Amino acid sequence: MEARFEISWTATGDRQFQLKTDGGEVILQSESYKTFSGCTNGIASCKDHAPYERFYVRCKRGTSEGFHLRAANNRVLGRGPCRRAAVLTEADIVTIKKFAPSAEIQDKTR
């Protein structure tokens, strides 16, 4: 398995990035960014922080489980999908730790 960052437009005309598996599944989604450079800086920070367990915050949303990837300044870099089982959330985190640091970036906004 591999992963890639994709930069795309939001419904409001901002940019966002998603980390997708080679099967196209979104395993991390960012906030929106006004500028392209802000978005690429967010990806760079994600790549820097992704390998380290201390930057992942698990959370429950009703009966589902999810997580946030945070920067050292506690800013949310991205959110993971809600899963019905903790084992699936942990599998997403393992994938992000392994592949995000070297993931290629595809810009779908140009």
What is the domain tally?
Answer: 1
Terminal CA distance reads 27 Å
Spans of at least 5 consecutive residues with low confidence: none
Mean pLDDT: 97
Structural class: alpha+beta
Strand coverage percent: 35-45%
CATH topology: PH-domain like
Q: Largest sheet, order of strands side by side?
A: 3-2-1-7
Largest sheet: 4 strands, mixed
Pfam family, one: DUF1508
Domain DUF1508: 16-53
Protein name: DUF1508 domain-containing protein
Family: Belongs to the UPF0339 family. Duplicated subfamily.
Q: Quick gist of this model?
A:
InterPro entries: DUF1508, UPF0339_domain, YegP-like_sf. By secondary structure, this protein is α+β, with helices and mostly antiparallel strands.
How is this structure best described in words?
- By secondary structure, the chain is of the alpha+beta class.
- The protein has one domain (1-105): PH-domain like, CATH 2.30.29.80.
- 25% of the residues lie in helices and 35% in strands.
- The chain has a four-stranded mixed sheet, with helices on one face. A three-stranded antiparallel sheet has the order 4-5-6, covered by helices on one side.
- Strand 4 (56-61) and strand 5 (64-70) form a beta hairpin.
- The N and C termini lie far apart (27 Å).
- The relative contact order is 0.24.
- Pfam families: DUF1508.
- InterPro entries: DUF1508, UPF0339_domain, YegP-like_sf.
- It comes from Pseudomonas tohonis.
- This is DUF1508 domain-containing protein.
